[in-house]
Design a protein that fits this description.
13 strands, Beta-lactamase, single chain, five-stranded antiparallel beta sheet, about 35% helix, Nuclear Transport Factor 2, Chain: A, four-stranded antiparallel beta sheet
């Protein structure tokens, strides 16, 4: 299995010592981040060959050359580092310009250790969370539907700490991969699949990013464990579709029902990411047919569109989640599948399930306070969600689910705000307050 080449500490760097923390981080993530930040903080443009730092697809997205983009970024400098946050294979560096305007340089490493994403944008400010009312105030935005759930779970008893429309099914994007993971774990337990079995990349199973497996050549064989790892930790869409092809659509639908989904019919047929992209942003008649069809008609439709992907990433635009082209789950549904997977991890003697689920915590986590952290994020145009299952040293579990949906993607952004609000809640102590 290829380990994600990130920061093992996943700890928030103190704001007062951010530059020193970045300078002293010698993990693969820290080294790449330090180099990338240096592109904006060093006196001049680099004269080295950039191809050794980026995956080929990154540089291909800059037809004028990345140096031209870099020159535009540097026009707003010189910059100084004021905050550094490394989390597994991702990092965020807050930079202050000469007038005090702050920007965020976000970086994502590929599983090969090269930079897959490097983006500079305005700093996304998340307000402090002191109580549940301040969380609600921050999430209440015109044009955005949202829900939230915070719960404490001890010995199977669930205590709801906060809930806002937590029983309303909402589109969730990639959190559907939690059900795929449950179906895979069940197949491994039944002996029909082994972690060292292999799946094969084919044109019919190739999807769009996120992830990197879509770039593998046809016929590439990848171990199941590595594929599942990428599906959860990197939210790799092609990995997810390979896993669904391995275990079967019916098995995933059974897994959703077994995990306590409040209305499993919302997930039937259980779509692959490939199918959502093709139905949602292919020919307009596909969307219309899907929206009007019953379950049997929808199953016929997904069979009819089987084949290599025709939709490109640039085709994605208008939101389609209101047509049922997404994976709809309530916050309580998300909590139930998280808890079921946590139990799976505790029961798995191989350690594979636990290593996969806890590979990427989403935000900086205090490991002394939360020695176990399970995270999954999800997004599609007009959809954003993040969820965490945190376990304290006594084994008490806490679940946090945040969901957003809108007809206009611009109202939601790229997820930095909602992810940041999740981090604020976790930092605040509201999940396990003083009375605990």
């Amino acid at each position: 299995m290829i380990d994600l080449p990130g920061s093992a500490a996943s700890a928030r760097a103190p704001r007062t010592g951010a530059a020193a923390a970045l300078a002293g981080d010698d993990t693969p993530l820290g080294v790449r981040t330090r180099w990338a930040a240096g592109l904006l903080t060093a006196p001049g443009l680099p004269d080295e060959d950039l191809t050794g730092h980026f995956v080929p697809v990154f540089l291909a997205r800059h037809p004028r050359g990345f140096v031209a983009t870099l020159e535009q970024w540097r026009e707003h400098g010189p910059f100084t580092v004021v905050d550094y946050q490394p989390v597994a294979h991702k990092s965020w560096v807050t930079l202050a310009g000469p007038t005090g305007v702050r920007s965020t340089l976000s970086l994502t490493l590929d599983s090969s250790g090269l930079i897959r994403v490097l983006h500079l944008g305005p700093e996304v400010v998340t307000p402090e969370v002191h109580d549940w009312a301040s969380l609600a105030g921050a999430l209440e935005q015109p044009g955005v539907t949202w829900s939230a759930l915070a719960a404490r779970v001890e010995r199977g008893t669930v205590e709801t700490l906060y809930a806002k429309d937590a029983d309303r099914p909402m589109p969730n994007g990639s959190s559907y991969k939690l059900y795929l993971m449950r179906a895979l774990v069940a197949a491994v337990a039944a002996g029909t699949v082994r972690w060292d079995d292999e799946v094969t990349v084919t044109p019919e199973l190739r999807s769009l990013p996120t992830g990197d497996m879509q770039e593998l050549p046809d016929g590439t064989r990848v171990p199941v464990r590595e594929t599942a790892y990428k599906m959860i930790a990197m939210s790799d869409n092609t990995a997810a579709d390979l896993i669904q092809d391995l275990v079967g659509r019916d098995a995933v639908e059974r897994a959703a029902e077994a995990a306590g989904h409040s209305d499993p019919s919302l997930l039937r047929p259980f779509l692959t990411s490939h199918e959502v992209f093709e139905l949602g942003w292919g020919a307009p008649e596909l969307r219309e047919e899907w929206s009007a069809a019953d379950e049997a008609g929808r199953r016929r439709l997904v069979e009819a569109i089987a084949g290599p992907m025709t939709v490109r990433g640039s085709d994605l635009g208008p939101t389609v989640h209101r047509l049922g082209l997404d994976w709809h789950m309530s916050a309580y549904d998300v909590m139930r599948v998280l808890l079921a997977l946590a139990d799976d991890g505790a029961a798995d003697t191989s350690g594979a399930v636990e290593s996969i689920l806890t590979a990427y915590p989403g935000v900086p986590i205090d490991a002394a306070r939360w020695p176990r952290a399970v995270f999954k994020g999800g997004s599609c145009p007009g959809v954003m969600m993040f969820c965490w299952l945190l376990e304290d040293p006594e084994g008490v579990r806490y679940v946090l689910v945040l969901q957003q949906a809108a007809d206009d993607q611009k109202l939601i952004g790229d997820g930095q705000f909602l992810r940041g609000m999740g981090g604020r809640v976790i930092e605040s102590g509201l999940l396990a307050g003083p009375q605990r």
